[in-house]
Structure to design on (303 residues):
């Protein structure tokens, strides 16, 4: 596959040593460098980026906690860069006879959010407090042959002739496979990272919800804590988290109620008030709509 891909990249085909394939879910770039160079800046993109070396060698410089960290990036190796990260790259061996060749795959945040949301649903896992860490993240090396294989398959789908609908589905599913594979590596925190001016405010709201789940939480109050109007807050909350504020609060209440019923074997009425319901009958109806059985039936089925 590497040889086939390299045969498609010729110097005269690439403007400024780059060939770009854009799609709905990602952008693939193929690079060739024909001369030695030092400290070439790369990065500051809006989405996580996978880098994969095809031939030659790069030397990556990054600042890690204000200390420069340098390492070699060689053929067959992958690297994941966080959004807005900036690194500097040396090309010590590049020449016209043996150019340095690599590819980058920038994966859109929407597909990452959707995939992580599906994963969260399947695992019934609490990821909300981890999904939006606002901290400085550096690039991570990924040593996994499955990831490299998926990267090359994405390249094949972009570059080989095929039906448009088939291409779109194959790329989408392979990108989701890549995301799930990377979630099992140390690059996991990069995928769950999102920078942006409003994100810290939204994280404060999520934290507030979790700390006050037993209280009466109104959308007006949550919007005020995010320093947004109610319509703007509702629209932004749903865009980022995939559900409305009311549905998010209800979902968290049901998940916490289930945990209390199982881990502490509390009475249904106690759980009802612990998760913010004022009416036991309302709580029972909501729980049954969510899990398909009453709280007592759920508790009995596990003990």
């Amino acid at each position: 596959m590497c040889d086939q891909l390299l045969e498609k990249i010729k110097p005269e085909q690439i403007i400024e040593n780059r060939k770009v394939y854009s799609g709905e879910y990602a952008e693939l770039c193929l690079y060739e460098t024909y001369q030695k160079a030092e400290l070439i800046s790369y990065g500051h993109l809006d989405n996580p980026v996978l880098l994969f070396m095809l031939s030659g060698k790069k030397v990556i410089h990054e600042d890690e906690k204000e200390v420069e960290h340098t390492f070699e990036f060689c053929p067959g190796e992958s690297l994941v860069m966080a959004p807005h990260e900036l690194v500097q790259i040396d090309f010590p061996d590049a020449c016209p006879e043996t150019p340095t060749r690599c590819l980058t795959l920038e994966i859109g945040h929407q597909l990452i959010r959707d995939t992580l949301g599906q994963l969260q649903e399947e695992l019934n896992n609490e990821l909300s407090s981890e999904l939006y860490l606002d901290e400085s993240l550096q690039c991570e090396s990924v040593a996994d042959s499955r990831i490299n294989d998926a990267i090359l398959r994405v390249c094949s789908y972009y570059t080989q002739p095929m039906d448009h609908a088939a291409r779109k589905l194959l790329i989408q599913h392979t990108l989701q496979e890549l995301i799930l594979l990377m979630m099992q590596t140390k690059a996991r925190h990069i995928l769950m990272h999102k920078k942006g001016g409003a994100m810290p405010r939204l994280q404060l709201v999520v934290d507030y919800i979790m700390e006050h789940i037993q209280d009466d939480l109104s959308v007006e109050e949550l919007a005020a804590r995010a320093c947004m109007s109610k319509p703007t807050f509702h629209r932004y909350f749903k865009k980022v988290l995939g559900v409305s504020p009311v549905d998010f609060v209800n979902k968290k209440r049901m998940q916490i109620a289930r945990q209390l019923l199982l881990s502490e074997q509390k009475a249904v009425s106690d759980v009802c008030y612990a998760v913010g319901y004022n009416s036991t009958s309302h709580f029972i109806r909501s729980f049954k709509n969510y899990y398909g059985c009453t709280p007592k039936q759920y508790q009995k089925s596990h003990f």
In short: Strands lie at 18-22, 26-33, 37-43, 49-55, 58-64, 67-73, 78-81, 86-91, 100-107, 140-142. The longest helix spans residues 164-182. Confidence is low (pLDDT under 50) at residues 1-16, 127-139, 194-198.
